[in-house]
# Entry
Amino acid sequence: MFEFFFKYRPLLFDEGSFAFRPTIATYVATILVLVAGVVTLRTYRRVRANSRPIDRAALTGIRLVILALLVFCLFRPVLVLSRVMPQQNFLGVLIDDTRSMQIADRDGEPRASFVDRQFGGVEGPILTALAERFVVRLFSFSSETNRIESVDALTYDGTQTHLGQALTRAQEELAGVPLSGLVVVTDGADTADGLPPDSLMPLQAAGVPVFTVGLGREAYTRDIQLSRVDTPRAVLQGASLVVDVVVVQTGYEGQLVNLLVEDEGRIVADEQLTLPADGEPTTVRVRFTAADAGPRLFSFRISPQVDEMVTQNNIRNVLIVVEDTREKVLYFEGEPRWEVKFIRRAVAEDDNLELAVLQRTAENKFMRMGVEDADDLAGGFPRTREELFKYRALILGGIEANHFTPDQLRMISDFVSDRGGGLLMLGSRRSFAEGGYAGTPVADVLPVVLDETVGDEESTFFVETDVRPTRPGATHPATQIAETEEASATRWPELPPITLVNAIRDVKPGATTLLTSGDESLVVLAFQRYGAGKALAFPIQDSWMWQMHADIDVEDQTHETLWRRLLRWMVDGVPDQVVAAVPQDRVELDESLVLSAEVDDANYEEINTSQVSAWITDPDDELLEVPMDWTADRDGEYSARFTPRKEGLYEVRVEAANDGELLGSDTTYLRVAPSESEYYDSTRRTPLLERIAEETGGRFYTADTADSLADDVQTVGGGVTVVEELDLWDMPGLLLLFILLVLGEWGYRRVRGLA
# Structure
């Protein structure tokens, strides 16, 4: 409509400057017009008697506007523009070559169809129009940017979009030639953590405008997306995993769908959920068991729904290493109690837990159970870090603080903070404050506040109470005593009462209470992270009542389940002397990554002089040794760079030695596969594309408005230019205005009876 009235597009008026180009004839004609105006004014005197002052003013005003319009046109107004010289300037056209361009979110047509139709072959109208005016250079971009001869070279299988890199690469390639601008055809779904702040500065400095063409929808009308899946990197075999899956949807509010979890094709969980309101994330908690050892590829998916625009974002694949190892736990008990028997019974059938028990039978006399050889714990509680640190978790029963030396108390604290082990203190007259632990290094580790006024022998506090899970305890893996969270929350109040020995009412800032007494006044189970490890307080003496009480069925497994899951959680994530790591469980083919390792000695003190190597087994079982060097950034940290050349699963085994003695090894896994990130959050990023265009002096277009692209680049672009003047006097809008004014005067005279 604008072009109909004003001849030219708005962009030309924005970019051009206004000027007059009068001639001698212009001045002569202007004089004649002014004379005509004087004559016109005199004619109104003859109708003076029949008109009012307002009539004469209105008619005079209209005539003057008409005369002014005529004078304006006689002075020949022009729009002065700078246009690029045809075929003397270069233009870079960058086309998105990633998977998101295959998404059919516009009337069932893939985004790539626009590219093929407008830029393909010899008849692509936009490419043809650009080629008439510029020397066009085509580029494809994804994670890399490459020159192409035609759009036929596009495959649309790129797995990452690096828009900033593409702009930089194209400008560098076209440096030294008269460059009118860059055209970027994309959905703007950048996967490189946003456009680098300085990526546009070279373009701005060189005066190179960027014209962005945004494809796809700004928002989907019907779509379900698994935004995030939170899983551990490694778990023990048989572990019960609790995984949070974040789901976002549009167009399916209130619909029931099933979230499936598959372990390499075998369904291990099926959770039904009601989809939330459009755009509102919801977290679905899924529970399943990691039954098979080894690196396992778990798939989380929701089946595609009717009319769903993007189905590739309905699935997330996660690599989890299921470890078939035996984790050592030391239980030191200072008095005869039934807990020893029943905790041993609870973990006896768990192939991944190894419980060693040291029970004091008399002063300086101990009974050992579950030890590996005759020398283990022969001297009582470990006196060296090396002896203690070979365990992953430590349980302290009824053993008073003054049984330990100051070095041993400090060593227990270091076991948690430095070694990263798990510590659990049970209730007893010889535990917590009653056992004299207040003011010791162990008290710093514990998650509860110890009352230093409590005497060693004076406490007579015992209370029988039932147990309730707190809100965190209802979902925490350590307190799940049934197959589902709902069943576990129901089961806790049904258990018989137990005896709380130590009156603990307060936890430390940052600690979490998992279980409380029935009236919620006393702490039954709490934990906190401390340094690299974790510590728990469990001030009861008879959890075995949950196994042997008269109201408990003989086949009931509640007690065993609690202790297995509690101990598994305590040893989960406890590091070895050598810990191997990769930055993520999946990388692209030919994508360079950094392998890292942390190396400690037997006392878990960092070593910077070790000989460390990564032994990498590729998908074809070929073995490669990659030496690792100390990073110098952190003590005990080693790294090496590795680039995978094959798709599939890689085993990375890191070995460390010092002075010819093997310190230890660790194995992790790496999956090399195409990324699916292009399908997530894949709507058109209009704000980003508009910002690029605005900050560089270009323009933003959609698929519907891109027809004017070639003309706009010719006007806005830089390079070799020529000045052009466009006449404005003959604009249809001016003619229409003139006609309306003449008709308006005539009509006014007729209505007022002045004709």
The chain has five domains: 2-81+726-752, 86-214+683-719, 223-320, 327-571, 578-672. The domain at 578-672 is CATH 2.60.40.10 (Immunoglobulin-like).
